[in-house]
């Protein structure tokens, strides 16, 4: 890893991984190139960044603008984006049905889902975006799905643990992904030595545990596959094991909820919290409300677990889960 990467570089890199439009990608790449320490050790990285910038430029200028392009058709919504991926017939669509109000087609034969389809999963007082996808096989990997996985906060790798071919089908999907620069890991990161290589944090979801033989199949999976993802056992159809999965999904997003209140009202708006990454500041909340609020922010009063009630803070104040803030512009 090249040494001395600035906080600005790392921030831009994280934004690049999560970007949802070519324009955003281009902007992040330009910051990355500007912030990259220029010396022999970063020559390769510099060249790669330049290449990506020129590619992103073409994409933002090209006729495809605004059209369908890998992963950018579905806008980001809610506290985070979670992809449901896996081999055919694993129960991805059934899982989306069980966790959200979306109604994708579920059928007892493979290749039912043809394109990514989002749904919103309620968790406590926030919503999380889940996206069902077409199956991945040795010969099939939908480019839009691949793009979405790169920018996602979390992947649920769904395995059919109720059928004997489940292990092999999952392995095939993993092998297909391993041939691309979009891979799965315990934590999300970009490979520093190969900017295109992106890893997305993943949970293994063993589905159909209402059927017999699940333990044996999981043992087999671990014998043949060196997977170290956190593991959840569920029956999407019967609703078994979904609560712990939901909790873990929310925890993995690593967001804090912030309730805003007007100076004139006694109570904050408890129905619709804003969510930001843990470690985020008051200024980020102001930006979510409106660019003008961010620009004109003087200070805010905060009620929360970490401060005395009504403490006055500035834009760089780091928020905690369930803080209530009253912004003054
Ligand atoms: N027994 C059992 N069957 C399930 C469960 N979840 C899904 N199924 C069944 O498995 C079959 C496939 O489910 P889908 O949700 O369509 O699977 P998919 O992964 O979306 O399949 P593709 O769209 O082809 O990739 C259907 O017959 C479902 O009823 C479960 O928890 N238990
Ligand atoms: Mg499906």
The computed structural class is: alpha/beta
The helix fraction, in percent, is 25-40%
Global outline? globular
Main sheet overview: 8 strands, mixed
Tell me the count of domains: 3
Distance between the termini: 42 Å
**Could you tell me the strand content as a percent range?**
15-25%
CATH class of the largest domain: Alpha Beta
Low-confidence stretches: 64-71
Strands, total number: 13
Radius of gyration (CA) equals 22 Å
* Topology order in helix (H) and strand (E) letters: HHHEHEEHEHEEEHEHEEHHEEE
Number of helices: 10
Q: Based on the structure given, which CATH architecture of the largest domain is correct?
A: 3-Layer(aba) Sandwich
CATH homologous superfamily annotation of the largest domain:
P-loop containing nucleotide triphosphate hydrolases
| CATH topology tier name of the largest domain | Rossmann fold
User: Which hetero compounds are present in the coordinates?
Assistant: guanosine-5'-triphosphate, magnesium ion
* Mean pLDDT over all positions: 91
